[in-house]
């Protein structure tokens, strides 16, 4: 329980990125006392230095919610409401809607939630694990470690004195935006590469969220964090800006280009390989295509254990979770087509959940009205449930009106974080929808008996990003269902022989 003196303080749950920053503030990964005030933040953005001249690359700030009470301290909680830290507010700054709080942070309890807790050790524990090696070579892994990166790392260790003198530290950043493996999946792929690395390699999970700063500033921040964890050297594909080389920065080593030499079947520096013997490694898009098709990844490119983790993280589309969101006016036929698609998908062997607009309104969103904010909340709820279905490999077929582009984009983002997303615009003209209206809703809306009715007294924002458009005024239900189903087969979401 919280101490008595903290129970009356207002609580605030920071964003995921701010919670990652908070974790590094509390464990010493960021050598700062807390979130920055306006003078420090502006100085960092302008000169990559704090107001007192101390080199620091990125502004670490905490945004406040609207209406946050003017209290001397805040209790910062995780998404489950568990208190994590106390922020003693020394400054509130920024314009309305962008208000921020600055001040030192104090841990209230060790983090209790989240995956890979045993690997989320702070700098002190990691330094103890590294011991008294004469050099510590770190790499910040924002993607899987394939054979090229492994060969470069092992070669660099030899250049620095060999495994007896040099320890290797791999910092995995689960917040990295990698096209194939992110979050927990990224941690698993990097862990799978450990047997290929020098004995005694230390592995730590360190969240390094993006802050919207220039890429060179984000790289400098990663260097500062690596130094806090004990790195004396940092293996990086790009150098740090000279102005950011504070005493706390490790020496940055930029390896030469390495390629796969088909003549001797090893990875070597490009200058030692004849051009005709260079085998190009698959890029991110080609790698994603191989995984989507269920094709094996070649051993020369990545270790089998890493390939297995990637295949588990990104199974073929026909076995991956998917959200199909139908959007259209009332009476457009979207619910009927959605039901038909759900039946066809079930017949093809996919696990399907149908989230129809009217059913969701009675159950999941009971009590909500039809104001814009309530409509947006209804779609967010549908999106959350649909994304959870997709997270576990199922297909969620959703058929709300979903009139607003921004909210549909939120659902797309939720779905694509865990699986796939297909937006189907049922673009039946309003006059056809109105003519079909057996409930008389359009007539009531035009008579003013129903307010905020989409297409009449409330806008419908036609999607510019629809993956497929169907019009049930010139297609039968079966034809519309077949068109959507065929689209899913073509894109690999349903096995062609399903």
From TrEMBL:
A Pfam family annotated for this UniProt entry = PUA_2
Q: What pathway is this protein said to act in by its record?
A: Sulfur metabolism; hydrogen sulfide biosynthesis; sulfite from sulfate: step 2/3
Domain called APS kinase: residue spans:
320-471
Binding of ATP: at which residues?
328-335
Please tell me one Gene Ontology term that the record gives under cellular component. cytoplasm
Instruction: Please give the Gene3D superfamilies that the UniProt record associates with this protein.
Output: P-loop containing nucleotide triphosphate hydrolases, Sulfate adenylyltransferase
Give the UniProt record's GO annotations in the biological process aspect.
hydrogen sulfide biosynthetic process; sulfate assimilation via adenylyl sulfate reduction; sulfate assimilation, phosphoadenylyl sulfate reduction by phosphoadenylyl-sulfate reductase (thioredoxin)
Listed EC numbers: 2.7.1.25
Q: This protein's superkingdom?
A: Bacteria
Reaction(s) catalysed (UniProt annotation): adenosine 5'-phosphosulfate + ATP = 3'-phosphoadenylyl sulfate + ADP + H(+)
| Role this protein plays | Catalyzes the synthesis of activated sulfate.
Name this protein carries in UniProt? Adenylyl-sulfate kinase
**Whose protein is this, by species?**
Allonocardiopsis opalescens
Q: What is the organism lineage in this UniProt record? A: Bacteria, Bacillati, Actinomycetota, Actinomycetes, Streptosporangiales
């Amino acid at each position: 329980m919280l101490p008595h003196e903290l129970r009356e303080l207002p609580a605030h749950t920071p964003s995921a990125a701010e919670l990652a920053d908070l974790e590094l503030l509390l464990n010493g990964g960021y050598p700062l006392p807390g979130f920055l005030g306006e003078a420090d933040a502006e100085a960092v953005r302008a000169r990559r230095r704090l107001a007192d001249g101390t080199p620091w690359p990125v502004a670490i700030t905490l945004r406040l919610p609207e209406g946050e009470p003017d209290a001397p301290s805040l209790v910062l909680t995780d998404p489950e409401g568990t208190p994590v830290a106390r922020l003693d507010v020394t400054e509130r700054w920024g314009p309305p809607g962008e208000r921020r709080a600055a001040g030192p942070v104090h841990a209230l309890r060790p983090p209790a939630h989240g995956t890979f807790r045993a690997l989320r050790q702070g700098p002190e524990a990691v330094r103890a694990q590294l011991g008294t090696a004469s050099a510590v070579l770190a790499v910040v892994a924002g993607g899987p470690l394939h054979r090229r990166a492994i060969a470069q790392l092992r070669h660099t260790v030899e250049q620095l004195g060999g495994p007896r003198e040099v320890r290797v530290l791999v910092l995995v950043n689960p917040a990295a935006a990698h096209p194939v493996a992110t979050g927990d999946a990224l941690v698993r792929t990097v862990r799978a590469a450990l047997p290929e690395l020098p004995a005694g390699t230390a592995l730590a999970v360190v969240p390094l969220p993006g802050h919207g700063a220039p890429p060179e500033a984000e790289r400098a921040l990663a260097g500062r964090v690596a130094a806090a964890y004990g790195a004396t050297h940092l293996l990086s594909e790009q150098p740090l800006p000279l102005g950011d080389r504070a005493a706390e920065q490790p020496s940055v080593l930029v390896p030469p280009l390495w390629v796969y030499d088909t003549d001797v079947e090893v990875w070597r520096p490009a200058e030692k390989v004849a051009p005709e013997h260079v085998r190009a490694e698959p890029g991110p898009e080609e790698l994603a295509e191989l995984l989507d098709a269920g094709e094996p990844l070649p051993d020369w490119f990545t270790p089998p254990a890493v390939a297995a983790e990637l295949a588990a993280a990104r199974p073929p589309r026909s076995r991956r979770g998917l959200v199909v969101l139908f959007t259209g006016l009332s009476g457009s036929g979207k619910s009927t087509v959605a039901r038909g698609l759900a039946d066809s998908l079930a017949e093809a062997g996919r696990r399907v959940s149908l989230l129809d607009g009217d059913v969701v309104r009675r159950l999941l969103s009971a009590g909500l009205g039809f104001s814009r904010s309530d409509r947006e909340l209804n779609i967010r709820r549908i999106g959350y449930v649909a994304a959870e279905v997709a997270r576990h490999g199922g297909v969620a077929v959703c058929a709300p009106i979903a009139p607003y582009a921004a909210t549909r984009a939120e659902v797309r983002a939720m779905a694509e974080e865990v699986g796939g997303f297909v937006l189907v615009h049922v673009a039946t003209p309003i006059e056809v929808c109105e003519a079909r209206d057996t409930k008389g809703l359009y007539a009531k809306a035009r008579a003013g008996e129903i307010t905020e009715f989409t297409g009449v007294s409330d806008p419908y924002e036609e999607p510019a990003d629809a993956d497929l458009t169907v019009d049930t005024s010139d297609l039968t239900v079966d034809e519309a269902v077949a068109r959507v189903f065929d689209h899913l087969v073509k894109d690999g979401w349903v096995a062609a022989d399903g």
